Amino acid sequence: MKVTTIGAGYVGLTTSCVLADHGHKVICLDVDQVKISKLERGEVPFFEPGLQELLDRVLKKGTLTFTDDRKTAYYHGEIIIIAVGTPPQIDGSPDLRFLKTALTDISEHLSSHKTIVTKSTVPPGTNKWIESELAQKADRKLFDVVSNPEFLKEGTALEDTLNPDRMVAGGNSAEAVARVKELFSFVSAPWFTTSLTGAEMIKYASNVFLAAKISFINEIAAICDAYHVNVEDVARGIGADPRIGPAFLRPGLGYGGSCLPKDLSALIYAAKSKGINPKLLPAAGEVNDSVTKSYVQRLELLLGTLRQKRIAVWGLSFKPDTDDTRYSPALTFIRKIQEKGAEVLAHDPVVKETSEGIISQPDPYSVLTDADALVLATEWSVFKQADWGRVSRMMKGKIVLDCRNVLNTGEVAAAGLDYHAIGRYQ
Ligand code: UGA
């Protein structure tokens, strides 16, 4: 099929590459010319495992091209995939500016039939609105709209796209939904079909449930800590119940990234705009905000004060295997300890510099000289395999605060270091 993808971010680029690898003829459009130039040179503009190799392959096959020329892009696709960003605004609602621009462009290029597939995460009612907006500007027979939310995770984007748990399609036209199923016919996951708005709600409810699950285990971890109970045992014990499930029960600094915090705020906003006052959803966000504070307090307690203390921090990205630092709990933690007078030296395996001006030092050990404490903020696997003897010899203090409950406590202690975590006891 001829496909146009609008947006070359994690969702747009991964989807484009995978579709192109499965024989579809794909043009990927982005307004960011720097990004497009990089992609034309064959460079993936962000860190995502496996994506560079796949891009190399599809560029060789000639099934994927990039452009910033809207006319070329919109003319090409019989399927138009909208994968533009919907970043959060101050009031919690997502900014639909990029989506609206895409719609205007689509309406101006509807010379033949197009199936518009919305992958961007959009508030309930948006796809219905897209349909009515287009109907005002163009012949109704020339387009269909299908809401096809994306569930891929950064760090495992490719695997998630090739082997998703489920596919969701919402739409008013059975033929259009069938076309989208055909587009992804290489996927063996079950399809759930619903209304346009139903699909939007599935996406929000999924992300918000995951956020609530993380906040739940973080609250349980705090209680476990007070009772000297190992929260991992509790997570395993409750996770064995299929009604609960073991995934997403890892306690720590809380959730970050460009999706969970944004979608939680957006769903609260959407509920309030209909006169509904949710209670559980804001609580999930409040717990998430409070976990960083708990770790800051723990470090302060361990050191007596943070003033003029030198703190080594491992990890800047919002989770391992990505260079994305948007809403990274590691950065919130760093900002809070800096406000309390700490000097921070950080290292991340792929992040070079954050928008806050934190520069990643060249290697994990270079941040340790004279450090009063080491904080593990993001659980990159390289940190789990650290040479703890070397860490111990380089640091001034002995405190290791594991904010992700992942380090081998025995190895850390054997090197003469004082291991600390929240809710981790043997
Ligand atoms: C999330 C969803 O998991 C995807 O299904 C969805 O498609 C995506 O948002 C999106 O809407 O685009 P992502 O933001 O890439 O994916 O990352 P997650 O793996 O969900 O992690 C989110 C945060 O939760 C991270 O900060 C991670 O460290 C944290 N987390 C995750 C925990 O603190 N504990 C856990 O047990 C799991």
From TrEMBL:
- Signal peptide position in this chain? none
Molecular function per GO? NAD binding; UDP-glucose 6-dehydrogenase activity
- Entry EC no(s): 1.1.1.22
Pathway, according to UniProt? Nucleotide-sugar biosynthesis; UDP-alpha-D-glucuronate biosynthesis; UDP-alpha-D-glucuronate from UDP-alpha-D-glucose: step 1/1
* UniProt-annotated catalytic positions: C259
- Residues that hold NAD(+) according to the record: D30, K35, T86, T121, E154, K262, R326
State the Gene3D superfamilies in the record: Cytochrome c1, transmembrane anchor, C-terminal, NAD(P)-binding Rossmann-like Domain
Q: Which UniProt keywords apply?
A: NAD, Oxidoreductase
**What residue stretches are annotated with the UDP-glucose/GDP-mannose dehydrogenase C-terminal domain?**
312-409
State the family it belongs to: Belongs to the UDP-glucose/GDP-mannose dehydrogenase family.
The molecule here is called UDP-glucose 6-dehydrogenase
